């Protein structure tokens, strides 16, 4: 039984009247999922396009509801947390999580950050105990596989790359992944988009090939 949660974060659609405006990250994610489904049945597929349909930002009332004990939450507070509860349930039930995201201003889109803010939640995806000393936060979920698919206009954001110090997308996703219960991370990246040269085309082709190969590998693991 495989449950796959797919989160797309680009504000662009998969297909547009002008192909130059097609979302690169969404199309690579689609290649991965289509390839995976060819080899392994996806028993439940959950899809959220947070780029086109962004979740709301958290508010003071939201935080107040989170820190109110369950037996004292008002009806209004339960309603405020309803979407968060649903998103967390989707994560808890997933075996494989796919997050595709462009790099916006060297980090993740605000829409994707809003999704994370709704799900990184005390006593739901982590607990807090000062007895642990300087590391009181402990994730509550585990055993999940994450596929991170990114696209960027420049290049060299990988570890050891010339722009590693400017990369705030994948490192942020790696840090937050533990609150998704992730134990294994696979990364696929397309670069050079703004250069629009042969390097971009090669990077894109490599990303599509990597998506297909990784899908085949994970389908065998799932089987």
TrEMBL record:
Reaction catalyzed: 2 a quinone + NADH + H(+) = 2 a 1,4-benzosemiquinone + NAD(+); N,N-dimethyl-1,4-phenylenediamine + anthranilate + 2 NAD(+) = 2-(4-dimethylaminophenyl)diazenylbenzoate + 2 NADH + 2 H(+)
EC number: 1.6.5.-, 1.7.1.17
SUPFAM superfamilies: Flavoproteins (SSF52218)
Pfam families given in the database record: Flavodoxin_2 (PF02525)
Domain of life: Bacteria
Family per similarity comment: Belongs to the azoreductase type 1 family.
Statement: the UniProt record of this protein carries the keyword Cytoplasm: no
Protein name: FMN dependent NADH:quinone oxidoreductase
Record-annotated Flavodoxin-like fold domain positions: 5-213
Cofactor: FMN
Organism: Pseudoalteromonas rhizosphaerae
Subunit structure as annotated in this protein's UniProt entry: Homodimer.
């Amino acid at each position: 039984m495989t449950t796959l949660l797919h989160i797309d974060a680009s504000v662009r659609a998969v297909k547009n009247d002008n192909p130059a405006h097609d979302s690169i990250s969404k199309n690579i994610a689609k290649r991965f999922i289509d390839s995976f489904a060819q080899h392994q049945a996806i028993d439940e597929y959950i899809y959220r396009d947070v780029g086109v349909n962004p979740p709301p930002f958290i508010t003071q009332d939201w935080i107040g509801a989170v820190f109110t004990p369950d037996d004292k939450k008002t009806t209004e507070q339960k309603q405020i947390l309803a979407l968060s509860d649903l998103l967390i349930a989707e994560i808890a039930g997933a075996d494989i999580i796919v997050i595709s995201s462009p790099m916006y201003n060297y980090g993740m889109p605000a829409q994707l950050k809003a999704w994370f803010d709704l799900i990184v939640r005390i006593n739901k995806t982590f607990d807090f105990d000062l007895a642990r000393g300087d590391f009181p936060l402990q994730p509550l979920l585990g055993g999940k596989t994450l596929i991170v698919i990114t696209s960027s206009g420049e290049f060299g954001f990988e570890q050891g790359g010339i722009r590693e110090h400017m990369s705030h997308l994948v490192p942020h996703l790696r840090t937050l992944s533990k609150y998704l219960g992730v134990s294994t991370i696979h990364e696929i990246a397309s670069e050079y988009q703004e250069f629009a040269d042969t390097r971009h085309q090669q990077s894109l082709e490599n990303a599509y090939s990597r998506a297909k190969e990784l899908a085949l590998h994970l389908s065998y693991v799932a089987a």
